[in-house]
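yo

u said u wanted the structure for the complex thing, so here. seqs first:
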Amino acid sequence: MHSDTLIIIPAYNEEKTILKVITSIKEQYPDMDVAVINDGSSDNTARLAREAGAMVLSHPFNMGYGVSLQTGYKYAVRNHYSFLVQIDADGQHDPGGIGTLLALVKNGTAHIALGSRFLGPGEYQPSIYRLTGIKVFRLLLRLLSGEKISDVTTGFQAMDRKVMNVFVRDFFPCDYPDADVIMLLSKLKFTIKEAPVRMYSSPSGKSMHRSPVRAFYYTFKMVLSMILTKLRKYSLPNRDDSSKKVEG
Amino acid sequence: MPIRQKVVAFLIAISIFFVILELVRRRKLREEYSWLWLLTGALLVTLTIWYDLLVRITDLIGAVAPTSTLFFFALIFLILVCVQFSMRISALTNQVKDLAQEVTILKAKVDVQGKGTEG
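structre next:
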């Protein structure tokens, strides 16, 4: 029988850091399962991850960060995991935070726990542009949903099965899921909590939002996605049953 | 409308109509996409035969020349086709994504089972 917690690591060409991330997780949390979603990497990411003892789910071609996450959710739901943690492969997130985030979800304080780089002690220094972006989205999220979240773009999260069941559905925004996902969960009345985690500036120097065109597209898409999430109606047929089961 | 113009326009319209019909017949074009094209082909044929109709439509929408009416509707038609394509591409992208995820998860399962029987 496998563990009740799955740690998913979406990875695209991360051979420099993946081994260290998995080793570090395995050392600190030896009883948890680790799955790397290899998003069509052309380097040795998959081989290294397998050698480090992780389960490797390889996409047939590159589909992006959001799709990789969703593959992880689908895998977790199919294999009956109760809890899931997602962490980046580039070493930006300190695996030490996994325990903190999981505790919030496991003791029932929250359905989803977000790791915040701003509440934590980390050395993370975002660029002025990124910081402005985060502040704008923070404000927008607060206006549209009432959630007070300090780090709206965090990819370091822990969640329970109910949240996973939402994320495997069609309306999960696979194209840069961030603040719009928090809005979606808020709208569906899930409890969202933040916890301080340590984050480092991305060691591999890669960032999703490096080029100005991408940053612009990201901002545009996110604002649109947040407004649309606000306007849409979402129906979850099984939500009532599952919440009763967990609460009871 | 001079007769020469009329003949040319009619021939073009009718050939467009039959090309589409032939494509559907050979299953190169699925029926669900062909209706918009067939409708356009039929409309073109009608307008070349019944020029008065074009003149009346021109009056109705307040355009000056019948040619601008044609261009106007041609543009609207092209926009509609583009929207229809975007919708299809969105649906297809989603389907490809779901399939790829399914393949990924199944492949992982098969690999694990393969290892189990080997060992």
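Helices of chain B lie at 3-25, 31-49, 51-61, 66-118. Chain B has four helices and no strands.
cya
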